[in-house]
Amino acid sequence: MSTKDTYLPPWVLLRVFLRSLFLQASWNPKGMQNLGLAYAVYPALATLYPAGPAREEAVRRHLVFFNTHPYVAAAIVGGVVNHEMRIARGEETPDKVVAFKAALMGPLAALGDGFFWLSLKPAAGAVSAAMVPLLGVWAVPLFLVLYNGVHVLLRVRLYWLGLSLGDRLVEAVARANLPSKGAKLRAVAAASAGGLAAWLSVSFGANAGGTRAPLLAAGCLALGVASYVLVSRRVPNYVVLYLAAGLACAAGAFL
Predict the structure, then answer these.
(1) Using alpha carbons only, what angle is made at residue 91 by residues 88 and 94, rounded to the nearest 5 degrees?
(2) Euclidean distance between CA atoms 197 and 181, whole angstroms
(3) What pTM does this model have?
(4) Cβ atoms 77, 16 nearer than 8 A
(5) CA 44 → CA 37, 56, 247, distances in Å?
(6) d(CA 183, CA 124)
(7) How far apart are CA 119 and CA 113, in angstroms?
(8) Phi-psi group of 122: left, alpha or beta (phi > 0 → left; psi -120 to 50 → alpha; rest → beta)
(9) Per-residue pLDDT tens for 225-254?
């Protein structure tokens, strides 16, 4: 195969990315996401290798065990395509792409779990819940827009990093500093939850005919937010903010 044949056209790269969205559609106990990965990269393999033993061998090396976070897997999918182009050009041996997958699937799984499951989803949910008093049922599509907007854009970005950088995507992902961004999202989730609790307490106090309750509830929340800003770098959780929300609820319920 000539060198020019080892460069993939944009429509093939797009097909690989779109197929990667279905990574877990054929999840199985033995290989877990291996069938999904092979399905995702097959358009690239079919373009790089002629039908026959070379293509069959390329498919088989992606049928080994594979399991990682389904969103961050986009980086590995892009990196696999990068390696396969190099293999097709004779610049490296097939064992490089196998080692690439084995080395990254564990660390990227932990990174994805921490950012998407433990940070982005709670933050998007808490912000949407806090907007229910203003938006009503439209808070549901707001959640879908917030969550999917971020995760789809990150998938595209990670796929491009893997495709263009190969092994060097590790440095690019490290520079993105997702754990730090996740901590900020968790702070947003805590603030939104406290704000919603304060709004409920103010609403309950006003409906009960209290005159001081709304002011006291809002004051407790404001004090808690200010305290949180002052101590957030030294306190490893959101105790102050949740305490403020609890005081706000008490003010609305009993005063």
Answers:
(1) 60
(2) 25
(3) 0.76
(4) yes
(5) 12, 13, 59
(6) 14
(7) 9
(8) alpha
(9) 555 555 555 555 555 555 555 655 555 555
